[in-house]
Write a structure and sequence with these properties.
The protein has a domain of about 40 residues. Helix content is about 90%, strand content about 0%. The termini are far apart. By secondary structure, the protein is mainly alpha-helical. The mean pLDDT is about 95.
């Protein structure tokens, strides 16, 4: 039980050291992730479309 208590205390102490990002930083990062995800989805969708058209053309 002492190990659990020590773990919780050490974990709590480490969480006090964390520098949490601000709202602006989180918003900017979220926008980057959403835009890049959309661009990759469009790119891979186009690649899939072209490859499928190529396969249907061959067979």
């Amino acid at each position: 039980m002492n190990k659990v208590k020590a773990f919780v205390l050490v974990s709590y102490g480490e969480l006090k050291k964390v520098v949490w990002p601000g709202r602006e930083s989180v918003t900017a990062s979220t926008k980057v992730v959403l835009v890049s995800t959309a661009l990759f989805a469009i790119f891979f969708g186009l690649v899939d479309f072209v490859l499928m058209k190529g396969l249907f053309f061959i067979f």
